[in-house]
Specification:
Blueprint lengths: L4 H4 L5 H6 L8 E4 L6 H8 L6 E5 L15 E4 L6 H7 L5 E7 L4 H5 L25 H7 L2 H12 L4 H12 L7 H8 L8 H17 L1 H15 E11 L2 H13 L7 E2 L5 E2 L2 E3 L8 H6 L7 E7 L1
Parallel strand pairs: 1-2, 1-4, 2-3, 4-5
Antiparallel strand pairs: 5-9, 6-7, 8-9
Helix pairs in contact: 7-8, 7-10, 11-12
Length: 303
């Protein structure tokens, strides 16, 4: 499948998220989710000659969108390793970090990757196609209890145990290698009025498990907190409650668990000051880009 920056991903909350960085022309910034390069290009348009942008993406397809600019460095890596990579490039502090979490339009539209139940395709779901287990590996190798935990914790499926049992029963006859086979294994449990929503939750759970997304997000935010200089900004777009909860906790309490520490006077001790109330896309953007409908933008400043 041939992709371009324009077809790879339509950036969500583009102006709002980059405005939230309060960009200093000579500053150092990080875009941890390069994708089609939309947010990165907007950041570069606001940087001066001495500014620099480091952009992360572990998906080889994203490399087709790399920007030819001396002020730009592409990092082919999972963003969880931001601390190590910034040390590698000799960067001690950054002035801002932007993250557009979740899955790009490209991943949903590429029928060979297995991210969408719209196509009959191999169940891969790896953001990094060069390493790691696939969704098929998980479906065929996890025991029933572990599958149920994944579906409940990451997909918030109320019938997680029944779905796990149906998959376990199905794979006794044949392995589950494609999206079509997964649909066949679970079809009796997917009520017609909720089928799309429940399948979306099932696919979300598998994708998160395949890519270890929650741990990667925690590591990235911890690394960002250590790197941001005083006055530096975090601008993060989330799409589901699991990742949004982690981002909100870090911005309010300084840790992913939301454990609040207070000083002698009862004041909450946090490395961040909240800059905005939750920002959501306009009605116009939601009509133009349906993927944006569940998006939430949170912005915080390092103190």
């Amino acid at each position: 499948m041939i992709t371009t920056a324009e077809t790879y991903h339509v950036p969500v909350l583009l102006k709002e998220s980059v405005d939230g960085l309060d960009i200093q022309p000579d500053g150092i910034y990080v875009d941890v989710t390069f994708g089609g390069g939309g947010h990165s290009k907007e950041i570069l348009s606001r940087l001066g000659k001495k500014g620099h942008l480091y952009s992360f993406d572990q998906d080889a397809d994203a490399e087709n969108n790399i920007v030819d600019d001396d002020r730009f460095t592409f990092v082919r890596s999972n963003f969880r390793y931001i601390g190590q990579w910034m040390r590698y490039y000799g960067v001690e502090h950054i002035d801002g970090l932007l993250g557009d979490l979740g899955v790009s339009s490209h991943h949903f539209d590429d029928e060979t990757r297995g991210f969408s139940f719209r196509f009959d395709a191999p169940l891969d779901m790896r953001m990094n196609k060069r390493a790691g287990q696939t969704a098929a590996d998980i479906l065929n190798n996890y025991d029933e209890e572990r599958l149920a935990d994944v579906f409940y914790l990451y997909g918030e499926l109320k019938n997680a145990r029944r779905v796990a049992k149906a998959i376990s029963d199905y794979r006794r006859q044949r392995s589950i290698q494609t999206t079509g086979q997964l649909a066949e294994a679970t079809e009796a449990l997917m009520r017609s009025e909720r089928e799309k929503k429940d399948m979306a939750r099932l696919y979300q759970a598998l994708r998160i498990e395949v890519n270890n997304e929650m741990d990667a997000l925690r590591d990235m935010l911890k690394g960002a907190t250590a790197l941001l200089r005083e006055g530096g900004r975090l601008s993060i777009i989330t799409y589901h409650s699991l990742e949004d909860r982690i981002v909100k906790n870090v911005m309010k309490a300084g840790n992913a668990e939301g454990k609040v520490e207070q000083d002698f006077f009862g004041r909450i001790s946090s490395p961040y000051r909240l800059v905005n109330k939750v920002t959501t896309p306009s009605d116009e953007e939601q009509l133009r880009n349906p993927r944006s409908r569940s998006a939430k933008l949170r912005i915080a400043e390092r103190i």
